[in-house]
Amino acid sequence: MELSKNDKIELTIDSLTSEGSGVGRYDGLAVFVRGTVPQDKIIAHIIKRSKNYAVGIIDKIIQPSPERIESDCPYSKKCGGCSFRHMTYDEELKYKKSRVQDALERIGHIDVKVDEIIGADDLAHYRNKAQYPVDIADGEMLAGFYAYKSHRIIPCADCKLQPTEFEQGLKAFSKWVESENITSYNEQTGRGLLRHIYFRKGFATGEIMACAVINADSIPNSDLLISLLKENVDGLISVAVNVNKEKTNVILGRETKIIWGEKNIKDKLLGKTFLISPDSFYQVNHNQCEKLYKKASELANLTGDEILLDLYCGVGTIGLTMADSVKQLVGIEIIPQAIENAKENAKINGITNAQFICADAPKGAEILKKKGIKPDVIILDPPRKGCDKSLFDTIEELSPKRIVYVSCDSATLARDLAILKEKNYVTQKVTAVDMFPRTPHVECVALIIKEG
Fold it and tell me: Does 408 participate in catalysis according to the annotation?
């Protein structure tokens, strides 16, 4: 029969999308249903019908998949954060590895078998950063995460992915909001003070930073907020205010003011100490990050004689963990504060063979070329959108022997590997790393070798 909205159909789930939704077929038509697992047999209630697909919700589970489990989070069905709390971890890892493999073959036309995925030991409370949108009504603050594909906040102070200290921090903010009649930012009107509440934690040090993202230059009674946070949050060493008065969905504004304590928190990775500012990039999962960097170092195969170029270097974490194994390290990053952090990180670790350049990756690579610095190995760790296309011509001219590409998006990785292949750089190994357990995201690292 012709499928229509509000129809109820029997469906067997046979695969998953990149966002973690289940996919079944009804008379050849793809039907997407969140919260399902491959091999689930369900009754799906159709809530949307378009020309080429339909969207449903679970009306009834007729026969659960052998890989289905009971979610341990009361918010997971509504929150847009976790996609796999109803699925065994083995099945999640299997899916993530296959997703990377599929991207390599389908998008990149790369004939390499993905190595066994590196799974996580800890599936809960592993994130070292949280950005909570807030909604304040009648003096009561709701903080949590957005529902799937919406800006409707699901209150979730005790998120399973976040450290327990962040929940205590939200309680402190809530008391301050109530005491000072704080308003929340309204996206439609552009009015209201508090936009987001932001926390960072150094897992190896226990140091925590709390930050209010506001639609103003300052907050009322900052002394009370500081006092409440100090009372409630173990490990707190910094309280900041980030000013964001733009009409935008970008969370952080350009200016951050420290109103109490240190301007950075510290963490340790692979024996090195790192300073982390409020707005600098830092991997969100400490333990998995160490596994990822160990794998990247293994693929780089450094002997001590190489010049290593760390593009998109952030606060210098990847390059500095490898600095002891190279002759010279050069890091390039566009965010000035991150470059300052990288320089400080080199200094506090006693690393003298490193230099850092503030520029975007293509321009920074051009600066190196003009200086006559030719790297033997390049580390690429770009944002989700992948590398700027103009960068590949510069890489070709720099002519490194090896490239180690760290990616948080297997689709853009596959696209970029295909471009490198045209420039005689052959992908030899790809390893997936589960940096984000219970969510649909997966990190991976690839080794690319210059041919000939």
Answer: yes
> One of 79, 156, 358, 408 is an active-site residue; which one?
408
How far apart are alpha carbons 402 and 318 in whole angstroms?
16
Reported as a single tens digit per residue, the pLDDT across 294-342 is: 999 999 999 999 999 999 998 899 999 999 999 999 999 988 888 988 9
The pLDDT tens digits for 326-384 are 999 999 998 888 898 899 999 999 999 999 999 988 888 888 888 889 999 999 999 99
Cβ-contact 208, 199 below 8 angstroms: yes
Amino acid (one-letter) located at 430: V
Q: How confident is the model at residue 1 (pLDDT cuts 50, 70, 90)?
A: low
* Residue 452 clears pLDDT 80, i.e. is over it: no
